[in-house]
Automatic annotation (TrEMBL), chain A:
Keywords: Ubl conjugation pathway. CDD domains: APPBP1_RUB. Pathway: Protein modification; protein neddylation. Signal peptide: none annotated. SUPFAM superfamilies: Activating enzymes of the ubiquitin-like proteins. It comes from Oncorhynchus kisutch (Coho salmon). GO terms for cellular component: cytoplasm. This is NEDD8-activating enzyme E1 regulatory subunit. GO terms for molecular function: NEDD8 activating enzyme activity. One of its GO terms (biological process) is protein neddylation. Transmembrane segments: none annotated. The keyword rRNA processing does not apply.
Automatic annotation (TrEMBL), chain B:
GO terms for cellular component: cytoplasm; nucleus; protein-containing complex. Residues 392-480 form the E2 binding domain. PANTHER family: NEDD8-ACTIVATING ENZYME E1 CATALYTIC SUBUNIT, UBIQUITIN-ACTIVATING ENZYME E1. This is NEDD8-activating enzyme E1 catalytic subunit. The gene is UBA3. It catalyses: ATP + [NEDD8 protein] + [E1 NEDD8-activating enzyme]-L-cysteine = AMP + diphosphate + [E1 NEDD8-activating enzyme]-S-[NEDD8 protein]-yl-L-cysteine. Coiled coil: none annotated.
Amino acid sequence: SKRTMAVTKASKDQKYDRQLRLWGDHGQEELENAHVCLINSTASGTEILKNLVLPGIGAFTIVDGHKVSGQDVGNNFFLSNNSIGRNRAQAATELLQELNTDVSGNFVEEVCVFNYEHTCLRLGSVLWNANIPFLVCRTYGLVGYMRLVVKEHTVIESHPDNALEDLRLDQPFAELKNHIQSYDLEGMGKKNHSHTPWIIIVAKYLEKWFSEHNFQFPKNYKEKEAFKQLIRQGILKSEKGTPEDEENFEEAIKNVNTALNPTKISSGVDDIFNGEQCNDITSQTPAFWVMTRAVREFVHNDGGGNLPVRGSIPDMIADSEKFITLQNIYREKAMQDASVVSKHVESLLQSVGKVCETLFCKNAAFLRVVRCRSLVEEYSVETVNKDAITSCMDSADGEMVLYLMLRSVDRFYQQHSRYPGVYNYQVEEDISKLKLCVNSLLQEYSLNVNVKDDYIHEFCRYGASEPHTVASFLGGSAAQEAIKIITRQFVPFNNTFIYNAMSQTTATFQL
Amino acid sequence: MLSHPINWLPAESKACMNLLLFSLFREKKRRRVVELTEKMVVDGGSRDGGEWDGRWNHINTFLERPGPFTHPDFEPSTESLQFLLDTCKILVIGAGGLGCELLKDLALSGFRHIHVVDMDTIDVSNLNRQFLFRLKDVGRPKADIAADFINGRIPGCNVVPHFKKIQDFDESFYRQFHIIVCGLDSIIARRWMNGMLLSLLVYEDGVLDPSSIIPLIDGGTEGFKGNARVIFPGMTACIDCTLELYPPQINFPMCTIASMPRLPEHCVEYVRMLLWPKEKPFGDGVGLDADDPEHIQWVYQKSQERAAEFSITGVTYRLTQGVVKRIIPAVASTNAVIAAACATEVFKIASSAYIPLNNYMVFNDVDGLYTYTFEAERKENCSSCSQVPQDLHFSPSAKLQEVLDYLTENASLQMKSPAITATLEGKNKTLYLQTVTSIEQRTRPNLSKSLKELGLLDGQELAVADVTTPQTLLFKLSFTS
């Protein structure tokens, strides 16, 4: 019933409040419509799922044909000792399901032979062709590994930290210009003078500067300092001649450097505009590219080379009326620009589905596209990223050597049908065998690098163990990447992530 | 500190320090094994842990096998596991987002003697990440429910809950633990804990007795950001050495709130701080309860009215609640990552298996995954751990209020409501104390008196107490001309 739905929504709003403040109701909706498949409910796997079930993913399915072992229960929070001998997928599903009744948990009893390389390459191809994002995760001793495989992932809401404001002080649009004109700083009373927004102050003094400097902007450090001085001279003085306390002027001076940044489109966004997908718009084109094309049209035809105005300004010392009026100038221009973009969308296509033009325009400066190389490209001798591997191996104790070791233990598995050093007696004798695998790997890919013996010894020592804390670190990391893919908010990594729990360091490589 | 070029110890000393620390840590372990074994005999023997084959395989590789990256002092042994299982005692502070994760991580890493302290009860909004709690547990103490869940899920694990504030315990409680790990959401509480462990340090002839050191692992998260750090009190940077890493909370200026609102947040603060005390909507003396939906609803409506007055848009119920409760967004994933890093460090230190994190890691997964690991340096004149008496430079004509302002506003001190006492004419005199109303009223006139008027002399010691530290801090008054 409607009332039940309202009550449910209210209680979900309460439960998910802390995360709704990060990705909003629309992000939550995407999450609740998503279905995730986990292959192998190892500790890493169940930890990933835990961090997806808790925030309310729509559904999960675990595929695992293994029977629960005593060892499994030892490092896995979602297996209990009375499930030893039962199917692992089923046992884990029960305890994961119990975390959140909003989520639908399923399992399939199917064995995946764990030859990482072989399985991942085959599965990877299937998923690549089906355009289903694939995230490979593993915990191996004190090393965590993630590989994201997605052909193309577009992000409108990247939520950048420390984004620059879009104030247009270098090229004020007509309404902003008029508004600035309406101020007469010299003729104002003290109260108004001290509560004029710094944006107006900078704009006014910029006009002064232009008239004295042949219409050139302050260019270098020296000129910017002189410009700040010019503003400082504008601070009202008391009868005794001492400067009054005008915080808004101090704000103006503090913000000069960023305020004078020229309005321009970042190279990242430019690259996106020049993407192939932007050119041939059909009814099959994803909404993101239709919108991007529409904004590109705007930039060339209406925006004078600039993106639609973002419409937001930072808070600043000012009285309410001056601030709100200024804020509305920017907001209304943003809305105007967005509706022009709308018209371009219409002329390209009839509709773009759910993507809202205002949201897109507001985020136009921060669009991101992530394209990962396929696993075939990573593993194939012809296309392996030799440069990245070789240059990263310059720091012999960085994370790249751990990547090479993971590749090597997979070779070991292919040859011996087991991982090195699983049993105590194997540790010593496997070192030389693993070293052969390392050398054959380096040879096959013509990698002229040196892998220290210490790492070969360490990886034998690990015995393919999966300590819970490392699995949990990886579980948190992987779950958030999955959430990024599902909600299309925030930016996923590209494409290989390594966690070294010995040094508590991480690295990301594009392989 | 971070950009401080002065290293606290030369490199060689640091290496020695690490080795010294670990040799003596193991010595401390041995002592405790003796203590606790005796105790166990009296109590009637060890519990049946419900062991099964292979249970600890994933951990044993790190305890029983030698390796090239282990701590120089590490000795592989089949007994190390027994130490973790039977003897090692860990204290977890906080049973919330980080705490739940920490308890799970520690329990699955072989730790069985775990105490957890948390003064809070469970709220619905906790359920998106504090996975040891269910809807039926709302209102119950976090520590109790968390302990029950872990003890039920992990056979043999004995988590002992304490539904208390950390300040309810004294040294005798904290001294019993090998390692303390914090998952707090309050800087004040962190600083208090830091001060407590510093107060346990024993110095003999100016030399620190390493067996009096209890390592502190501290984790913090906020949205998609987090950090994990390892502190050896008395040896490495403490919380107060790096206080500048925690910027003070931003409060809006009063004039903005009272007469020039611009943002929806300003409207909510107006209602909370000015309108509520004036209108007393739920009766005389009824304070705003941020957890009462009716109270929030009232604030929300009044905030909307205020906003309408100034043509401000954007006041929503969610925003109102966020401002009133100072809500920090939170998700399961960040807490999982940071707690896991902390628990890994607990394991490394308890087992001596690897050299621990030296000493601070930050994490941010807004754009890809980013971590930065560095060594936070000790502050030479840290107000908490340097044992260097802090100077206060003031003119004798300065008012006591100025001293108070300095104690609260200085970035390295950031005290909350300091109480200042001094010895005058042989007697201990309270100059100002805020936390007890009668004393506050009595001593308030002192704030507008000058230091000279109050009878304070150059070189005088002032004792300052505050919530940020369990011990009184001593300052030396140094008059400027």
